[in-house]
Amino acid sequence: MAQKKTRGLTPEFREAAAREVVEKSRPVADVARDCGVTGQAVRNWVKVYRAVRAESTELTSDERKRLHDLEKENRKLREQMEFLGKASAFFAARYQ
């Protein structure tokens, strides 16, 4: 099957293809086949897409600390929920 040249493709098209790989976890080969381009072309687009997103999503040190604190709190709450679920199952079984 003949492959299209990638020069004539719009930046929007390239970004949409890269988004399919990054955000929807589609295999590069599938996206490349659907777009009619090589897998290497899609991998290049993904690299550019990730680089652009990384620049715009860098966290400040305060944001990193807040994120770390929230992740720690989230883990603690999950552990508590798991414990409460087990405790409620224990008492439900015991008093039936």
Keywords, separated by commas or semicolons:
96 residues; Transposase; 2 domains; coiled coil; Arc Repressor Mutant, subunit A; Transposase_8; 4 helices; mainly alpha
What does this structure look like?
Helix 1 crosses helix 3. The model has no long low-confidence stretch (mean pLDDT 89). This protein has 96 residues and is mainly alpha-helical. It starts with 10 loop residues before the first helix and ends with a helix. It has two domains: 58 residues, Orthogonal Bundle (Arc Repressor Mutant, subunit A); 37 residues. The protein is built from four helices and no strands. This is Transposase. Pfam families: HTH_Tnp_1 (PF01527). InterPro entries: Homeodomain-like_sf, Transposase_8. Keywords: Coiled coil. It comes from Amycolatopsis minnesotensis.
Query: So how many helices?
Result: 4
* Overall pLDDT confidence: 89
- Return the CATH class of the largest domain: Mainly Alpha
| Radius of gyration based on Cα positions | 23 Å
CATH topology of the largest domain: Arc Repressor Mutant, subunit A
Helix proportion of residues, in percent? over 70%
Number of domains: 2
Q: Please give the alpha-carbon distance between the first and last residues.
A: 67 Å
Strand content: under 5%
What structural class should be given to the helix and strand makeup? mainly alpha
N to C succession of SSEs: HHHH
Oligomer class: single chain
Shape: elongated
Main pleated-sheet profile: none
